[in-house]
Amino acid sequence: MNCSELRDHYQLYALGLAEEPERSEIRDHLDRGCEVCMREVKQARELTAMVASTAAPLVPSPRLRKRILAAAGAESYSFGWAAGLAGVAALSLCAALYFAGRERQYFAESATLRAQTRSQDIELTRLNEAFAILNGVDTTVTTFGEKQPKPKGRVFCNPSMGVLLIASNLPMAPAGKAYEMWVIPKGGKAPVSAGMFQARSDGTAMHTEMISMDMSNTAAVAVTLEDAAGANAPTTTPVIVAALQ
Amino acid sequence: MWLLPLFLAVSGAEGDAELVLRLQRRDPRALAELYDRYGRVAYALILRVVRDVGTAEDLVQETFLRVWTRAQAFDAERGSIGPWLLAVARNRAIDYLRSAGGRERNSVEFEESEHPSLFINMEQGILASDRARRVKAAVEKLSASHRQVIELAYFEGLTQTEMAERMGQPLGTVKTWVRAALKNLRDQISTAEASA
């Protein structure tokens, strides 16, 4: 691969998210001393380093500084209170053994709650996006699947906010597969991917893609079944086609 | 206000080259100075990853000792020690998280991503720069899903497949979010820099 083909992957590489073969290609370019790749990866690493600044600022205990300097042989601990400290340490050990089990339990519970909160945040964002499109003054509605057993539903398009698809009677995708929505331009131009989604077990689905749309040049919104990793172009016959007026 | 500790922590970043030379000469006061500049940033980063004070302090110690013992490999004139130290800190924290969670560890990749030669010719004092503030502002402006994928990648070291499992979303959706989030970050930073 040449450097221009790797252009979209430098930031993923710096963040540890690049996949094969691009990851190995970038590594090879760097090993060869490729100036373009070295410059791009350096810039990507700068951005990645600055993400650290989004962590909430916190101050460590003052004893940590002493510990580090002592461990490096740069400063000695004072052991004048060693005997007293040993007694306190013994008591602390007993307490630690008791509380360790409880702490693990609390930690696991808090991790579960954090995961639930994150999921709810995402769901709330999706609903807010959907309501924004539904309430848009220039939103148009297109119905699909009226004369067929499945699937049925509506597509809401807003030029500045994007597309909202609401469907029913849509079977769940098989394992390793997912539905991908496409915006199909007029004039036979290539369909544009508008994100991936899954149908629920009751056959309903709601998917929102926040994109700007040129309504006068859009022929239809369609949905195909693709590999879960997504496709660059539709590879199967659409299960939904909503022809825009 | 959020950047004040960061500014305090990295104030005097222009003296990094001299500080690295002293670290290479094994000057104990240089290690103390290094800690005073970057200790709080490294601690905040590690604690954000492992979420446990005791573990975070152990990993901060490990980070500074690693930098102390490897300073000889660092280019004092052209290297930027702050981003290097934070890369070491992040790798230590994520390695701990992966180990504790029974996930696969990749020490080879860590060795590669924190090699001192990768931190040559970076902007001096980058962590206290206006760009750092713009990155912070840009991350805060991302949608919930976009911010989450960036945070899961940076603070938990998850792959895109692991993110998809964690978030219960198709892999393709997560990939779309990651690319869109990175593009939004770049666009917002470019716009802010153009208007500055």
Question: What is the topology?
Answer:
The complex is a heterodimer of chains A (about 240) and B (about 200).
Chain A: H1 10-14, H2 22-31, H3 35-51, H4 62-71, H5 82-135, E1 140-144, E2 152-158, E3 162-168, E4 177-185, E5 192-197, E6 205-209, E7 218-227, E8 240-243
Antiparallel strand pairs in A: 1-2, 2-3, 3-6, 4-5, 4-7, 7-8
Chain B: H1 4-10, H2 16-24, H3 28-50, H4 53-70, H5 81-100, H6 107-113, H7 130-141, H8 144-156, H9 160-167, H10 171-195
Helix pairs in contact in B: 1-3, 2-3, 3-4, 3-5, 4-5, 7-10, 8-10, 9-10
Quick take:
The complex is a heterodimer of chains A (245) and B (196). Chain A is an alpha+beta fold and 245 residues long.
Give your account of this protein's structure.
The complex is a heterodimer of chains A (245) and B (196). Chain A is α+β, with helices and mostly antiparallel strands and 245 residues long. Among the domains of chain A are: 51 residues, no CATH class; 104 residues, Sandwich (Immunoglobulin-like), CATH 2.60.40. In chain A, the strands form two sheets. In chain A, strands 1-2-3-6 form a four-stranded antiparallel beta sheet, with helices on one face. Chain A has a four-stranded antiparallel beta sheet with strand order 5-4-7-8, with no helix packed on it. The longest helix of chain A has 54 residues. By secondary structure, chain B is mostly helical. Chain B folds into two domains: 119 residues, RNA polymerase sigma factor, region 2, helix turn helix motif (Rna Polymerase Sigma Factor, Chain: A); 67 residues, Winged helix-like DNA-binding domain superfamily/Winged helix DNA-binding domain (Arc Repressor Mutant, subunit A, Orthogonal Bundle). In chain B, helix 9 packs across helix 10. Chains A and B meet through helix 3, helix 4, helix 5 and strand 5 of A and helix 1, helix 3, helix 4, helix 5 and helix 6 of B.
